[in-house]
Design goal:
It is built from four helices and ten strands; from the N terminus they run ββαβαββαβαββββ. The chain has 172 residues and is α/β, with parallel strands linked by helices. The chain has one domain: Dihydrofolate Reductase, subunit A (3-Layer(aba) Sandwich), CATH 3.40.430. The protein has an eight-stranded mixed sheet with strand order 5-4-3-6-1-7-10-9, sandwiched between helices. It is globular and about 40 Å long. The protein binds NADP nicotinamide-adenine-dinucleotide phosphate. NADP nicotinamide-adenine-dinucleotide phosphate binds next to strand 1, strand 2, strand 3, helix 2 and helix 4.
């Protein structure tokens, strides 16, 4: 049974998106996402899936599992579910080491209840946006690993520092 892990990148003020888009573009962070999720099933909401750039839709080399409540929505080349619990049951039966919940805000909020691990890139600055990462309560989650990195935000041209963080649900 695969471990189900949440993976996200959030600004200091918890922003993860603005409309359908991610407000930054950091090559190192994309490469991190690609390396961590490589070969693993990736679960995401339809808004996140539709916002992927054409060359990454579906995310290559990974089973793309898309959630939508819209009965008329029929994307090609993805595994589609209309119910989060059904998607989780399907993923748990897969022959994989890990499966990833890849957003967006709605699916992260649902996912936070079921995962024991969060791979979170935390940017060291605020961004403007209207989609937020759910609160990671310190009484529930412990920070197990942190590693500092940096890169250029291609949308602003600014050098930005960030931290790759691994959070684990505390037992009991
Ligand atoms: N920074 C990051 O790491 C990161 C990662 C991913 C996404 N994002 C950002 O997050 C934002 C999108 O987040 P979002 O919350 O608007 O959309 P989303 O989570 O991508 O998708 C939400 C959709 O999932 C469907 N859904 C909701 N509950 C469901 C359930 N229980 N079962 C089945 N389907 C269900 C609904 O589809 P219907 O449309 O059918 O109602 C809903 O519209 C964008 O700005 C995106 O760029 C950021």
């Amino acid at each position: 049974m695969p471990e189900i892990v949440m993976i996200a990148c959030a600004a200091k003020n918890d922003v993860i998106g603005n409309g359908p888009d991610i407000p930054w573009s950091i090559k190192e962070e994309f490469q991190h996402f690609a390396a961590v999720t490589k070969g693993s099933p990736c679960i995401m909401g339809d808004i996140t899936y539709e916002s992927l750039p054409p060359q990454s839709k579906p995310l290559p080399g990974r089973e793309n599992i898309v959630l939508s409540l819209d009965p008329g929505y029929q994307p090609e080349e993805v595994t589609l579910f209309r119910d989060f619990e059904e998607a989780m049951a399907y993923v748990r039966a897969l022959d994989a080491d890990r499966a990833f919940i890849c957003g967006g805000a709605t699916i992260y909020t649902l996912g936070l209840e079921v995962v024991d691990t969060i791979e979170l890139t935390r940017l060291d600055r605020d961004y403007e946006g209207d989609c937020f990462f759910p609160v990671v309560h310190p009484e529930v989650w412990g920070l197990e690993m942190r590693e500092t990195a940096s890169g250029v935000d291609r949308k602003t041209g600014e050098e930005i520092t960030f931290e790759y963080q691994t959070w684990r649900r505390k037992s009991g």
